[in-house]
Amino acid sequence: MIVLDDNMLGIWFVPMPPEGDWMGALVRDGEDYKLTYRFRVYQGDQSLQFEESQDAKSWVECCITGLPLAAVLRKIGNVTGTLAEKFGSKVHTVAMEDDGVTGFTERLKAQPWTDWEERKLH
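^ that's the sequence the OP posted. Answer follows.
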């Protein structure tokens, strides 16, 4: 699960037609960074909500230590760029800006590739 809070730095999305897509989120984790990403392989009815679909979803979370933010962003750009090139698609990015979580959330909701659902964690 990806939590939108003040540690969020950005979300990347890469369509991988016709098979699926890739999405990742980068957050600040103290002095380090945490990248949570998933591959999604489409299966069945694509009109269903993300959680209701039968799509295969593979989630990975990794901690990135010892690199400055610019280097981390470059590496994510290399991975997402390679995926987009391989599948003839493009990289979509929503970055945290000065308008904070509220502005970030509104920009994210406006993306055609989001399946937005708000949940209370506790």
